[in-house]
Amino acid sequence: MRAPRAALQTLEKELAGLESRSADLTSRWSAEKNKLSNAQKLKSELDQYRNELAEAQRVANISAPANWPMAGFRRSRSAWRRSKPSEIPAR
User: Fold this and answer.
1) Is the dihedral of CA 80, 85, 88, 91 positive or negative?
2) Is 3 left (phi over 0), alpha (psi -120 to 50) or beta?
């Protein structure tokens, strides 16, 4: 009679260990699933922002923003060169 009781206790301990391991693995799986979901959401947002930027560049013709600051300078410099000597301020 003692052998079946000992086997039952052994099986109950093993079951408790397996249930604990199952809970741990389920918790890890859930955390990984959430990370993946967040990464997919961020990728989707990034793609959306890239598309919005591309559209803004097409609409506003922002293809060469490095030339913007020089455009005003070039206009004012050429206007200064065309001005009469009497309009040029003395230093």
Assistant:
1) positive
2) alpha
24, 18 Cβ separation under 8 angstroms:
no
Dump pLDDT digits (tens) for 26-63: 999 999 999 999 999 999 999 999 999 988 888 876 55
Q: What is the radius of gyration, based on Cα positions, of the chain? A: 36
Q: Which residues have C-beta within 8 Å of that of residue 80, sequence separation ≥ 6?
A: 88
CB 62, CB 56: distance < 8 Å? yes
pLDDT of the residue at 51? 92
Spatial distance between the Cα atoms of 9 and 11, rounded to a whole number of angstroms: 5
| pLDDT top residue among 2 and 79 | 2
